[in-house]
Write a structure and sequence with these properties.
Elements (H helix, E strand, L loop, with lengths): L1 H22 L8 E4 L3 H11 L5 E6 L4 H7 L3 E6 L10 H8 L2 E7 L11 H21 L5 E5 L15 H4 L7 E6 L12 E4 L2 H14 L5 H11 L2 H14 L1
Parallel strand pairs: 2-3, 2-4, 4-5, 5-6
Antiparallel strand pairs: 1-7, 6-7
Helix pairs in contact: 1-8, 2-7, 4-5
Length: 246
């Protein structure tokens, strides 16, 4: 148990260093939770934040969000997207549902389309979530969360750029759960290491859930991932060669 805690602390620090170095993003280590791939943090986010009967809003096509919604007993509202908007939702589609939703799920870059959400749309969504949560504080209602699946953030090409809610609206951090993993960007689907960045009080509840279902990443994988994250030259060389093969 002590060894696992030590490995997790080491990897959480390495993740914070990665984001600081690559994204100019300061993430507090107490907000980082490591799991065996991205799926356990996604599942834990649903089980922690979403109660049966709550509303979850998500664009389609999307990756398995409907299944996580079903497993949490939530009411899913799929927002059908089109090629004209890069298979991303518009605020005109999302806005009518924010007043009753518990969670909005955005995946960017997206699986399966590979497109990224426009920064102005993401900023507008962040503003709407902040405004809605200001209203809810006066009524005592539970807050609205944004689950931001960013596992493909290193796989952008051409003029596409990755943006995070934290960069566009830093004040939204208490309402964002951002998911990441090594599986996609580093072709490591068999090595189950993923993580999320969440408000510390949410992370603590997610940690307890993941601990009870045994979804921690293996020790060898955690140690190796932390070491790789600390070697930017090697990481950059691999990423450049990977991009060149696509």
């Amino acid at each position: 148990e002590l060894g696992r805690e030590r490995d997790q602390a080491h990897e959480r620090e390495a993740i914070c260093t990665l984001y600081r170095r690559e994204l100019d993003l300061d993430v507090p280590v107490e907000s980082v939770l490591v799991g065996s791939g991205a799926r356990p943090p996604i599942y834990a986010a649903f089980q922690t934040v979403v109660a049966p009967g709550d509303t979850v809003v998500f664009p389609v096509p999307s990756w398995n969000v409907n299944h996580y919604t079903f497993l949490s007993g939530a009411h899913g509202i799929p927002v059908v997207t089109t090629p004209e908007t890069g298979f991303m939702p518009t605020m005109a589609q999302l806005a009518p549902h924010l007043g009753t939703a518990r969670m909005v799920v955005i995946n960017s870059p997206q699986n399966p389309s590979g497109t990224v959400i426009a920064p102005e749309v993401l900023a507008e969504l962040c503003d709407a979530i902040l405004a809605e949560n200001t209203r809810r504080r006066t009524t005592g209602d539970r807050p609205l969360f944004l689950l931001y699946d960013a596992v493909y953030w290193q796989l952008t090409f051409g003029s596409a750029r990755h943006h995070t809610p934290y960069h566009l609206r830093p004040e939204i951090a208490p309402y964002v759960i951002m998911v990441d993993a090594i599986s996609k960007c580093w072709s490591a689907t068999g090595l189950r290491v993923g993580w999320c960045v969440a408000p510390p009080w949410v992370r603590a509840k997610m940690q307890a859930l993941i601990g009870h279902v045994g979804d921690w990443a293996g020790r060898a994988e955690q140690v190796a991932t932390a070491r790789l994250l600390a070697e930017p030259e090697r990481l950059g060389t691999f990423t450049a060669s990977f991009h060149a093969q696509v």
